[in-house]
């Protein structure tokens, strides 16, 4: 993830944290929405890709997390940008993204 995009994400998260109570599920949801926003560019809104890129909504958590880990470790040949994107997230962020999309209905 480009540094300026990451900085923008952090600024949004800090802003949300200042407005919402620290233990608020709304704050957590807002942070997750910001993280997941970059996925929508290719995988469609809420991970429901209408095109040739695979939808990710409703996939099992373990499958999503394993796939993200494989991208991050550069173990999958022939990827376009997922390796670079996955390397831009922390372990906790990847877990959050995998949980977010796993919890959605297909």
General description of the model:
By secondary structure, this protein is an all-alpha fold. It has one domain: Cytochrome Bc1 Complex, Chain D, domain 2 (Orthogonal Bundle). Helix content is 62%, strand content 0%. It is built from five helices and no strands. Helix 1 (3-19) packs antiparallel against helix 2 (25-43) and helix 3 (61-72) runs antiparallel to helix 5 (91-102). The longest helix is centred in the first third of the chain and has 19 residues, at 25-43. The protein is globular, with a radius of gyration of 14 Å. The two termini are 27 Å apart. The model is unreliable at 14-22 (pLDDT under 50).
Walk me through the topology.
Blueprint: H1 3-19, H2 25-43, H3 61-72, H4 82-87, H5 91-102
CATH homolog superfamily: Cytochrome c-like domain
Major pleated sheet: none
Count of helices? 5
Mean pLDDT: 82
Contiguous uncertain segments of 5+ residues: 14-22
Key attributes of the depicted protein:
106 residues; mainly alpha; Cytochrome Bc1 Complex, Chain D, domain 2; 5 helices; 62% helix; 0% strand
Could you provide a short overview of the structure?
With 106 residues, this protein is an all-alpha fold.
């Amino acid at each position: 993830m480009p540094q300026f995009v990451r900085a923008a994400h952090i600024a949004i998260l800090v802003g949300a944290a200042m407005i919402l109570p620290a233990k608020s599920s709304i704050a957590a949801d807002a942070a997750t929405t910001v993280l997941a926003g970059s996925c929508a560019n290719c995988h469609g809104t809420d991970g429901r890709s209408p095109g040739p890129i695979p939808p990710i909504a409703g996939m099992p958590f373990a499958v999503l997390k394993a796939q993200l880990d494989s991208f991050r470790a550069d173990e999958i040949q022939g990827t376009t940008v997922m390796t670079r994107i996955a390397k831009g997230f922390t372990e906790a962020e990847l877990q959050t993204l995998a949980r977010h999309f796993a919890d959605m209905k297909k």
